Structure formats: C-alpha cells, structure tokens
Amino acid sequence: MTALNSKQETVCIFGTGDFGRSLGLRLLQAGYEVVYGSRNPNNSALLPKGAKVMSYEEAPQRANVIFVAVHRKNYDFLPSLRPVLEGKVLVDVSNNLKRHEYTESNAEYLSMLVPVAHVVKAFNTISAWSLQSGGLDANRQVLICGNNVDAKQAVVDITHSLGLTAVDRGSLRVASELEDLPLQLFPLWRLPLRISAGLLGAVFLYVLIRDVGYAGAVEKKDKSFRIMISLANKVFPTVALVMLALCYLPGIIAAFVQLYNGTKYRRFPDWLDRWMLCRKQLGLLALAFALLHVLYTLVIPIRYFVFHKRANIYISLIKENKTYEFNDMWAWRSDSYLSMGILGFALFVLLGITSLPSVSNALNWREFRFIQSKLGYLTLLLCTAHAFLYGWDSFLNASAYKWWMPSSYMLALVVPCVVLVLKTILILPCLDRTLTRIRQGWEKPGKAGMHKNAKSSQPLIL
Amino acid sequence: MTALNSKQETVCIFGTGDFGRSLGLRLLQAGYEVVYGSRNPNNSALLPKGAKVMSYEEAPQRANVIFVAVHRKNYDFLPSLRPVLEGKVLVDVSNNLKRHEYTESNAEYLSMLVPVAHVVKAFNTISAWSLQSGGLDANRQVLICGNNVDAKQAVVDITHSLGLTAVDRGSLRVASELEDLPLQLFPLWRLPLRISAGLLGAVFLYVLIRDVGYAGAVEKKDKSFRIMISLANKVFPTVALVMLALCYLPGIIAAFVQLYNGTKYRRFPDWLDRWMLCRKQLGLLALAFALLHVLYTLVIPIRYFVFHKRANIYISLIKENKTYEFNDMWAWRSDSYLSMGILGFALFVLLGITSLPSVSNALNWREFRFIQSKLGYLTLLLCTAHAFLYGWDSFLNASAYKWWMPSSYMLALVVPCVVLVLKTILILPCLDRTLTRIRQGWEKPGKAGMHKNAKSSQPLIL
Amino acid sequence: MTALNSKQETVCIFGTGDFGRSLGLRLLQAGYEVVYGSRNPNNSALLPKGAKVMSYEEAPQRANVIFVAVHRKNYDFLPSLRPVLEGKVLVDVSNNLKRHEYTESNAEYLSMLVPVAHVVKAFNTISAWSLQSGGLDANRQVLICGNNVDAKQAVVDITHSLGLTAVDRGSLRVASELEDLPLQLFPLWRLPLRISAGLLGAVFLYVLIRDVGYAGAVEKKDKSFRIMISLANKVFPTVALVMLALCYLPGIIAAFVQLYNGTKYRRFPDWLDRWMLCRKQLGLLALAFALLHVLYTLVIPIRYFVFHKRANIYISLIKENKTYEFNDMWAWRSDSYLSMGILGFALFVLLGITSLPSVSNALNWREFRFIQSKLGYLTLLLCTAHAFLYGWDSFLNASAYKWWMPSSYMLALVVPCVVLVLKTILILPCLDRTLTRIRQGWEKPGKAGMHKNAKSSQPLIL
C-alpha cells in the first residue's frame, strides 16, 4: 500500500468566508493540499480539517493557483503581494451585490491591481451551498474566462477534479457577463410575465364591468361575490387560451416572413426574435392558468352559490309541477365541451412535462419538434374546440351581449382562430413545399442576389 | 495583464450554414481561432464576429481539425483537397433526412473520398439550436466514433472546451448507428403505444356495443351522447389498470423463467426482453390514462346529464312522498372505492415523478428498486381494490350482464388479479429464497453443467 | 483511411458477472482492448464480442488497470497474483449486501491483500444496468478515491472515455463511505417521514375521537363510515399545513439565533442543522398531503353520503314550503376560501416543480432563493388564509367544541400563525438590516472577541 503520493498539488485560498471554506473542503476531499491566506493566520475556527492557515505573504508561495475569495472592496492588500504572485494564476470568484455597481468587472480590476499574475474568472456562478452539498446532485457547469490559456487550463483541471464541468467562455472581457449571471432574476420570464399580467388585468376589468358592473347598474343586483370564483374562472381560461395561441403565432409570422423574403438567411426583426425566444415561457404560463381554470371549474359543485341555485331550480320545478325534459342536444354539448377540455388539458400537461430540462435533453431534435409542434397544435385545436362548444350558439343570442360587450369566451377565441387559420394556409402543399426548401437553404433566385453570390447553389446543413 | 496567449489553436469549418455558424460562435467563445472554408469567401454575412472566411484550399492550412458542416451530396469538392487535408482530422457532423438513404454512413463515405485524412464522426446528435442556447442548460453528450485514437482525442479536447461531455462509441463502423439517432422517433414508445391503441380500441368497441348498442337495440333508447364522457370514463380506467398490470407481468414471468432454468445466465426469449425494456413507457402511458380517468370522474357533477338525472330523482322522491333512507353500507362502499382510487392515483403520480430522468439519476439502485417495485405493487394493489370496491357485488346481479357481456370493470380486473396472485406465490419464502440466490449468481447443479464449467462455485457481482 | 490505432490501451477485468460484462462492453465501445480474467478461461458464454478471456495469471499482464469485479468473499485468489499485480492499478468496484458487514472497507481490505498494487475505489455507485443503458441518459457521476494520484488519474481517464464524470473524493479512507452510498435508503427522508407519520397518527386519533367517538358516545350515532373520506380530508390538510409551516420555522429560528449571537460564524445546534437540511423533503411531503386534500375535496359531490344529505335538504325545504334565502356573506366566504386554497395549491405545485433537480440546477442562487423563500411564504400565507376563511367565525360557536376539543382546522393554524408572526417581526427594518449585515460577515463587536481576533474588520464573501 502506497502512502499519499508526493506529487500532491497545493492550492491557496485567500479569504476564509463561506465560499472559501466550502471550496477548501472540496479541494481537500479531491486530494489537494489547501493553504488559506488570512490577515489573522491564528484564527482558523470553522476551517476544514487538514487545511493550513498562513499570512497573505506566505500562503501563496507553494501554490500555483490562488483563489481570491474576498469581496472586491477588500482587494487593496493584493498589490503589495505582487512579488509573490508573479506568474501565478489568480482565480477571481467574486460577485457583486447589484449589477453595474462598478464600471469594469471585478476580474479585470484584479488584473489591473496585479498585472504580473494571470487572472482567471471562474466559480462565481457556483454557490458555497452547492459546493458543500456536492455528491450526486451538483452537476452544474463552471463558467471560465481569462486571457492566458495555460492559466485557464490549470483552473479547468481543478474543476474536473472536483467533478464539475468546465466551460471556457473566452477572454477576460467576458468576465462582466459572467459576473452578471448570478444577479439575473428570470431574464427570459420578464416579457411573458408582463404580457400575462397585462392580459390578466385587461380581461379582469372587462368581465368586472360586463358581469358585476352591468348587474349593479342595470339589474340593480350586487353580484360582487362572483369575483372570487366566477370571474376568476372567466379570466384564467381566457388568458390561458390567448397565451397558448401567442406561443404559436411568432412561428407562423416567421414562416410568412421567410416565404416573403424567399430565404432564411435574413435576420428577423428584433421584436420577432425576442418573441420567438420566450415561447417556452409563454406556454408554461398558459399551462399554469389552464391548471387554475381546471381547479376553479372542479370546485364549482362545492360552492354555496351553486348549491343554492340548484336548490331553487329543484324547488321551482316541483312547485310548478313540471317534469324536467331531457334535452339530448344539451347533453351532447355539455359532455363534448368537457371532454375536449379534458383532452386538451391532458395534452397541455404532456407538453409541460417535455419542457422540463431533463426530459427535453433526453429527446432528439425530431422528437422535440414532434411534441412541441404537432402535439402543440393539437392542444391548441382541442382547447379552441372546447371554447367553441362551451359557447355553442349563444353568440346568436342578444342576451349574450351586455352593453354590447360580448362574452369573454368570444374574445378568447379571436387569436387562436387567427393562428389556426394561418397554420391551415401554411400547410397547403404549395406553400409547405416552398417553405421546406427555404428551410433547407434554398433561396428565391431574385432574392439570393442580395448576398452578392448565389449561395443557393450549395444548400447547407441545418 | 497578459495578452491573449500565442498558443491559441485554429479550427476550420467547411460550410456556413446554421450548424457551422453556431459551432463557430461557440468555438470563438471558448478561445479558438475559427476559419471558415467557403466556395465564396467574400460572402461572410451572418457569420460570427472574429471568424475569418477563406477558400476551401486556404482555410484548412493552419488548422489540425476541420469540421465538415456540409450536406453529404455536396462532398464532391473534397477529393480535390486531398493534399491539404493529408493527416488532418476531418469531423463529419452531417445528418441525413431519412434513415437508410445511403448504403454506407456519411462518415465512411467521407473517409473513402479523403482516405489521407483521419475521419471522426461527432456532433451530429447536437442541434445548432442547443449549441446556441449553450449556457447552463445544454448538458448534452457528444457521441464520437472514429478509427484513429489521436484524431478522436483532438475532437474530445474540443468537446470538453465547449463544456460538453464526450462519449467515445468506438470505430467508424458505428457511424451509421450515430447517424440514425437524430432520425429516431420514440423507438422505445412504439410497442407501448401500439399496445395502448389496441386496448383503447378494443375496450371502446366493447363498451359501445354493451352500453349504446344494447340500449338502442333492446331498450330502444338513444344513448349515443354517453360516448363523450360516460364511455370514455369506462375505457380509460380499464386500459390504465390493465397497462399498469402489464408493467409488472414481465418481471414475474422472468422470475418464473429463472426459477425454471435454475440460473440467471440464460438469455430470456426475445419477446420477454422487448417487453421488459418498455415497462417504464407502459407505466407512463397507464399514468396518462389514469389522469384522464381522474379528470373525467371529477367533472361528473358538472354534467348536464347528471344534473338532469339528480333533479328527476329528487322530484320523484318528493312526489312519492318517500324519505330517502340512509344506507350505511352504501356509504362505506362509495367512500372506500373513492379513497382507494385517490391513494392509488397519488402513489402512481409519485412513481411517475421518480421516473423523470433527473429524479431517477439522483436515486441509488436500492432506492430506485424500492420505489418502482415495492411502491409499484402497492399502487397496483390499491387500484385493483378500487375497481373491486366499485363493482362490489354487482357481478352477482344478472342485470350487470347485457347480452351476456360483463361490465368493463370486470374485464379490467383479470390481468391485475393474475399479476397479484403470481406475485404472492413468488414471495412465498421457499421460492423467494431460491430466486434471491439465483440472482446472486447461484445455479441449480443440474443446470450449471450447460455452460461446460461449474461457474456457480464463484458467485459474481451483480 | 487508417486502421485501428496501435496505441490502443488494454484494460483487464477480473470477474465475468453482470457488472464485469456491462463494463467490458462499454470499454470495448470506447475503443479499449478488454481482457477478462477468469478461473475458467474457456467459459466465455455471454461475454461481449471482441473481449478475450484468460486465466487470472495471464489476463493482467498487458494491462495497467485491472477492475476487480468479484465479491469480497472471493478475494482470496488475489494474494497469489502479487508478482503480476505489482505497481498496477487495482480498481475495487465491489459493494456489500448490508452496511457494516465488515470492519474495514472492501477497498482497504483489497489493499491489505495486495499491498504492491495501487488500489482505487470507483464505479461502485454505478449499476450494471445504467452502464448498459448508456447513451443519452446515464449522466451519473463516478465517485473515486485512492491513495495514489497517478492511479486515480488512470481511472479518471477511463471514466471520461466512457462519457461519465469523475469526482475525486480523496484517499482510500473514504472508501467505506463510498461503499455505504449504494446501500442507503433515502437517508434525508427519514426524519421528515417520521415527523409526518407522527403527525398523521396524532391528528387521525384526534379527529377519530372528536368526530366518530363523540357521535357514538353522546349522539348514539354510528359515523364510522366517515373514516374513509371525511376524516381523511381533515387529517391530510391539517398535516400538510403544519408541515409547510415546519419548512419555514427552522430558517426563522436560525435568524433569531444569529441575531442573538451577533455573528454567523457560530455553529447552529445539531438539531437545528438536521432540521434545516431536510426542509426540502418536509415541503415535498406537505405537497403530497396537499394533493391528497385536493383530491379528497374534489370527490365530495360524487359521494353517496353527500348525495343523500343534499336530497334530504331539498326534500325538507319543499316540505316546509320554505324559500331558500341567498346569504351573500356565505357566498363570499365559501368562494373566498376555495379561491385561496386553489391559489395556494397552485403556488405549492410551482414550488414542487422548482425543486426537481433539473429545474433547480438551471436556476441561479438569486432565482432559487426568490422562489423558495418569497413564493414559499406567499404559499404559506394563502394556505393559512384558506384555513381561516374555512373556519370563519365557527371558533366562536360552542358547538365547534366537542368534549372541549376544538375543530382540527384550529389546531392546524397554530404553527403557521407562529411562523407568520415571527417572520413579520424579522422583516421589520431594524432587525432586517442587522440580519443582512450579519449574513454578509459583520459581527457584533462584543461577540467577535470570542474568535480571538476582530475578523469583522474584513467582511468575507458569502
């Protein structure tokens, strides 16, 4: 049995905070020797067992890689260490508390303070907590940037030893981008959340005026208690259906733009690009509203209001000594719209599940497109049919329009119908064939000239 | 601060399509120099900033690795480049539009065209889109094959620099397999989908004849409106329960086969192997049908038909001046079957969640088996009890048989009962002990001889 | 086209069981030459094509790395191979059937048997099955430990070639820890499962006595049928709400401890640490009970008992010739508590989804904290409001207390209210400011002295 190998590498960590301690522990577990640099080398409480603590001057001497786990505002002791740090790899792991706090990135600032060292930005996207939890769970990527290839390689090696994946993101100029990452708060969700907030507000106001306002002003009845469930159950399905349609609209617009341009080698307008990029988020929000609609619908028979209304129907039926005739058409209609809704919702849940990262990663491109496109349009079709059958012929009835305002379900149908009609046009054989060729790289002869050369002569890989 | 290191490697990309552009961008971000080879080197519209474009002859000169991001049918310019490509690494990233389009794989064809280069197949399972999205999300594996170890290593190094994982799949003969992967459409789901389609069709036909057909022919009533919900809510639970049982049946058959063979070192028949491999998919489809059953059940009180039926019951109760006596047994029965169903469904959802890749990857083998086997049988038991309690004693009643056809829930119980009985036999101590020993490598003395040597003398690791 | 490169490495595997065969197949696919060592080298049935089988003496000769895929109790042939194994890397992949079966780990035992070889523990956390399934799914980590750095590196290289991630966990002393991992059965779930079992039992007993016992003893009515749904639907929501509150209580206690200590650099008591570590599991169990509560609530209108009760209400209303007056306040109350419940449950589902490994890995620290903390407290607030509105003013009513026992929903409100009140205190500006400073590394002057030096002069990175 051999003793611990003599080649063991030493890594130095400046700073004994949470991140420094967690990193040191993982490095020790991975077989590195760890030396902490500290202003007070005698204070080693809470540091992992097996690590040494030295002064800032001594600690880096035997190490090639030094992690600077200190807040940027405490970098001022570093310039005095220049002789010791010359030619060594300084890893900046720091993050700021807000974005744009400083003009240059922490790593570039560090590089100006200690120009004799090779500064690498890394590990700032990894939290102390995920370093500690380690084990089978922490399969996160370490994003790395820096100007010196060998210095980056040294950090990549350490990253791999810790069982993490390293992604080289380029030169130190990228550092400010990496430092922004941990401060982001759902950047891709902003636009979809704003759209859904706007739609929720607008539809709520509409049904509030139409249902509660009209009843108060014209019928002199206080129906404000309907806000909690009846109105909510008009707002959520309307917004869900519109947002589901909004997922598929940009793809259709893009197809028409490509058909008009006669090529796929022209950039889409910015607003279309941004819209295309947040389709997944739009769809997931629509799913959330659809779930709320399902729950609000299923509690209907438990509501006091419904219990009361039904009791009165039964009582009046008996008092008037009527028999309640069975209406076959109504049975068909009621069962059909419920059935369409259930099938549409179940497919929608399936779409949601396949957009989970671990599921979509296990699909190949063809499978992913099949689900998100074919099954997606089927979902939209079922949900639109659900709304149509729910309304049935009530749009013919004058009583459906209060103050000339149509019922909310009619508004909900506008965008989905536009999307479905446009999609039907796009899958006409003549258009579909042209579009497929364009997407394989073909260009309309007249248009190709715009790129100076007839690139269309050589279709390229998708 | 050091300038960009001089050792920076150059990578060449033939082809400026979507994939070529996305790959170039990632390579530039990772610090490589990128040179595009193009028929029209002046046309660099849309190419990532920082990349150079040259002619096919010039571009590969300074690079060791050349990515061929061009459709196979445009490979014809490559043979003329032989002198420039000699000894270099050619990475074939191409995919075809359908399977079996050509007799040999694209990579082998490329290798025949340019025999002086080392051809490596790689990156064809990665889409341009997932290269672009990059960042924290794209943790997909790059499958690699090729005949030259050094050439493969060069591609592995590039893969790692891009933050991706490389999997060496062997020699270039495997290329056709890798080229098939992106063209697959749910290969493991085919059999389960066919089974469920067959079951759905058969059960639907059965209940259609029994419920709608019988009512039309014998009772002269049109009950066709029942198709939308009442029949659907018989078809889905029946298929769900049968398919859940079909998940566990192959494991039981395999156990009996092993007991009969007296060894685990004999291959199962092919049909059993195929069946075992799609158990997860069978179970997930069963879960989908169970979810539909739950939704169809919960909308019952909202249906017009139910509202009408209940109104008539209330009216007739009052007209006949009866008091509605409370039947304690009926209350027990109704509540018990609902309760069993709810618990069974909740456990079923738990099984579904643990089969998500990211969840099952976080479990060790023992935990996975505990959930999928122990909790799985508990789910089957609860769901079978749910169906039994639903039927109660109605199977004794002649009116449950129309045209001698039993109710669909009775059919649903056949397979689950067989599975549960066989499982009960298997956990009898005497059989269980033998089976455990067989699975640890023990072989029945008489049977072991079939492998020439008494391997049973040395049990091997599971 | 070049032939297979001559540098191809040879790997030896002792043992031809399931694991040995699966590993050999993967190694062959990755381009290694594989030689099996076997007591009976003529018996090569079931071994992967392309592998050789030799005697234990011959097999290791050309290989540097030898996998020992044999049960520990069969290690006794290894000491006789010492001359052949000298200086080679022996990889111990073995697992035991139960924990603490032997005093020292299998790998350390192997190292004592063959001291001339470098023993590395690895691959024991990977199952034969996940090696076989391979492809896009098996992104599991290989945990490695050993005393020799070069030996470990050789195993790391093989791991990478197989497309797996290697995590170096340190010296061979860690081996017993790695050998325990595959034998664990949900270690983090034990405490939460015990807490929930205790709560379920206690609340069930409470409502059993209060509802069924009281009715039997005082009202002389047999209400035991209520156990299946009515009681279950009191037990599950109570336990769900209490456990949701228990998720947030330890964080609040920790904040008060830090405020009292005036520093974050002091360890929490052990029970608090354990509690903090299982918050996720507590929350997921609470979500499971909340789902059961939702399902039990939604089946209410299908129950025979409810149908009977409603029929009697309608009949008595008609017999007494009453009109059923609409009570606006009751409508508000009924709709509000349902609405709060639905919104709370939907948010709870969102929390559950973000705790899936693949989703939480895609979030940065700030996003994760936003969801789990801000949205978590909002969920608790909504669910508590749901319970309050459900009860309304019934706590004022003497009939709500049977045998002086309050209704179960009142018990359910105790812990959530405590948590919400304490949290409100903590977000008071004065306390919040101090707490934020403490969490950024600041220490109360009087307390800092406890660590000998004024470390507070240098706030450290989080």
Write a concise keyword list for the protein shown above.
homotrimer, 462 residues, alpha/beta, Rossmann fold, 2 domains, 8-stranded mixed β-sheet, 17 helices, 8 strands, elongated, disordered N terminus, disordered C terminus
Describe the structure.
Three copies of one chain form a homotrimer. Chain A folds into two domains: 10-183, Rossmann fold (3-Layer(aba) Sandwich); 187-457, no CATH class. Chain A is elongated and about 100 Å long. The model of chain A is unreliable at 1-6 and 448-462 (pLDDT under 50). The first copy, chain A, has 17 helices and eight strands. Chain A is 53% helix and 8% strand. Chain A has an eight-stranded mixed beta sheet with strand order 3-2-1-4-5-6-7-8, sandwiched between helices. Chain A is an alpha/beta fold and 462 residues long. Chain A has helices at residues 18-29, 82-85, 106-113, 128-133, 149-161, 175-180, 190-217, 232-261, 270-277, 279-298, 304-319, 328-354, 357-361, 365-391, 408-426, 429-439, 445-448; strands at residues 10-14, 33-37, 52-54, 65-68, 89-92, 118-121, 141-146, 165-168. Chains in contact: A-B, A-C, B-C. At the A-B interface, helix 5, strand 8, helix 10, helix 11 and helix 12 of A face helix 1, helix 10, helix 11 and helix 13 of B. Chains A, B, C: Belongs to the STEAP family. Chains A, B, C: Residues 10-96 form the Pyrroline-5-carboxylate reductase catalytic N-terminal domain.
Topology, element by element:
The structure is a homotrimer of 462-residue chains.
Chain A lengths: L9 E5 L3 H12 L3 E5 L14 E3 L10 E4 L13 H4 L3 E4 L13 H8 L4 E4 L6 H6 L7 E6 L2 H13 L3 E4 L6 H6 L9 H28 L14 H30 L8 H8 L1 H20 L5 H16 L8 H27 L2 H5 L3 H27 L16 H19 L2 H11 L5 H4 L14
Helix pairs in contact in A: 7-8, 8-10, 8-14, 8-15, 10-12, 12-14, 14-15
